[in-house]
Design goal:
single chain, 270 residues, alpha+beta, 5-stranded antiparallel beta sheet
């Protein structure tokens, strides 16, 4: 890994020694520079969880990716910089179906720093902007909202709240069992092929903006959100590559097929 090249890619300038301030700034820079996207799948580009390949795609080619790619790379960066960090497995609550995904459905990062634990996630989309302290039962207020962690017998649930003190929307659940990147290989394939996963069903690219808003391309739409304000523009197929290049800095290679299909709910658990 070329640390300098990685830091330039995410627009980070400043000290790189392990500290909470460094962690916060790295996390924020990553989210506002590297898009959360499914575009490889719709260009028929296989995604393989090998760090050199992910580095080439995201850092050298200026692309984005989904959780295993982005959090896998960010974990590598943090460990290279000297942070005590490890990968954890989660299960995302699908906003379209309302159900949690299979085990190993999501990858997050836990960082140990100054006797405290912090949850990091640069591969989820519209979530927390800075690391969350692992303090169950405590509301943590950020620019992106109010976040709350519950602990249900060792299963942590991340919830986003609109109103302090009132139950909000669960985003995902996770445990503290350490995982390796290879452990997610099966689910990486699942998220490239399953009709119950958002990634093969919808072509999208989403990026947090410096002003606090979010810009998202999905299917044949460009969606801009800022707080409760939302604007949506219908795109022609011929416009999409230009939008991706000019709005997200993404230059696609090969054929790209836009998609915005319904997600098939996964089978009910026993």
């Amino acid at each position: 890994m070329d640390i300098k090249q990685y830091l330039v890619r995410i627009g980070y300038q400043g000290p790189a020694e392990p500290s909470l301030e460094t962690l916060r700034r790295l996390h924020r820079c990553h989210l506002t520079s590297v898009p959360f996207e499914s575009l490889s799948i719709h260009c028929r580009e296989p995604i393989t969880l090998a760090l050199p390949l992910l580095y080439d795609k995201v850092i050298r080619q200026q692309r984005g990716g989904f959780c295993f790619e982005l959090n896998g790379l960010f974990l590598w960066l943090l460990q290279t910089l000297g942070f005590g960090a490890k990968a954890l497995a989660g299960r995302v609550r699908n906003p379209f179906t309302g159900r949690y995904g299979p085990p190993l459905d999501h990858m997050v990062i836990l960082v140990q720093l100054d006797g405290c634990s912090f949850l990091c996630d640069v591969g989820f989309g519209d979530s927390f902007l800075e690391p969350l302290e692992l303090k169950p039962g405590t509301e943590q207020v950020q620019e992106g909202g109010i976040f709350w962690l519950g602990d249900e017998g060792g299963i942590f649930v991340l919830e986003r709240r609109e109103v302090p003190g009132k139950e909000g929307r669960p985003l995902y659940q996770f445990t503290l069992e350490e995982k390796k990147l290879d452990d997610f290989a099966g689910m990486c394939l699942y998220h490239q092929t399953s009709p119950s996963s958002i990634f093969p069903c919808k072509s999208f690219c989403s990026l947090r903006k410096e002003d606090g808003g979010r810009l998202t391309y999905m299917g044949w739409r460009l969606i801009s959100t800022m707080g409760q304000k939302r604007t949506e523009t219908v795109l022609q197929s011929s416009e999409i590559s230009t939008v991706l290049r000019e709005k997200f800095g993404v230059q696609l290679e090969g054929d790209f097929e836009p998609k915005d299909d319904e997600i098939v709910p996964p089978p009910e658990e026993d």
